[in-house]
Amino acid sequence: MNVNDPYAALRYKEFNIFLLVRFAMVFAWSMQFIVIEWQVYSMTKDPLSLGIIGLMEVIPAVSMALFAGHIVDQKEKRNLLMKCILGFSVISFGLFILSLPSVIETYETKVILYGIYALVFLGGLVRAFLGPTIFSLIALIVPKKTYPNAATWSSTTWQLASVLGPALAGFSISFIGVHWSMCIIFGFSLIALAALFKISKKPILNPKIGEPVFQSLKEGLNFVFKTRAILGALTLDMIAVLFGGAVALLPIFAQDILHVGSEGFGVLRAAPAVGAAITMLGSTRFPLHKNAGKKLLFAVFGFGICMIVFGLSTYFWLSVIALFLSGAVDGVSMIIRQTILQLKTPDNMRGRVASVNSMFVGSSNELGAFESGVTAKLMGTVTAVVFGGTMTLLTVGLTAIVSPGFRKLDLQKDVEEHES
Questions:
Q1: Distance from the CA of 96 to the CA of which of 37, 289, 293, 365 falls in 20 to 30 A?
Q2: How do residues 341-355 score in pLDDT, each as one tens digit?
């Protein structure tokens, strides 16, 4: 097989099935988050309520992350992923019930709101296991020489689903309402579950089965903090996402600033993912391995600029372009980070390292949503977004100054070693 083949990972049947599973789950999850955001803000008209959605998911996701990584490294990955999808299906069905017209008419707004928050909290528990399981399963489906290519296609699939999920959410809210939008989400979770049966069970590569939990967690944390490339990439992305979480405030921009309704909301929410998906598709032919450190710094700096432009814009299409470009540069960041993780993580520690990644980056999305909600409440929506973008720029500058080794990071040699 040609190791430079941009479709190398796609030549493995189970990897294609895996991409279908990942697409269906990300599509459902991203669509569900958008529908929840819209419903909650429509019910409360309070920016802080949007931040609480993120907080309700991030608390269990962070508190359970390390323990989840330990479990993932100890268990068979295919069946564990099935349990995660089943858990998500139960949550999405619960949200479907909560959005029934009869339920909304019967119960007070506060009761329904608390019910939504409770289900989002349970979703955070599921997500604590979902990310590490998916990350670990990729390495068991394709050979090592295709890891970088598989990471790119997996990230691209994630972004494509992130494009279509929010876009469909915006239009489905307008045409069929919140309730039946939840039904679509539940259907996609069932598609993911059915497809996963086509993937066979995988061996457990961890030689330390039954290892004490705290010893296992200590080993995983020590590895991350001693591997500077991983630690630098995670820290930079975490802070950028934490302060650049303007997407959590999009319902406010759509309804109160740009006045574009649910259809415009769907376009705004999908714009970053469209930009990221285009970047990722391009990277299958033009890899980002060389001078990865500098590219990552420039990408995060560009992300901060885009957030500032978006925050100041009062024109719909300028806002869409700013979000599109933010997604394009964020796609560069995501590909480089995933490539670093795949290349530098041993097979027996993938669950724990992925859990630390979810604590640093994945959960910072929700924590960033909470930060945006709080700052919007205190400063005003526009000021909060500009503040976040400015903090992102300062983070990049500080990282470039204090970590010259990270600026010089180059993954070309690592890629060649895996391909040989």
A1: 365
A2: 777 777 677 777 777
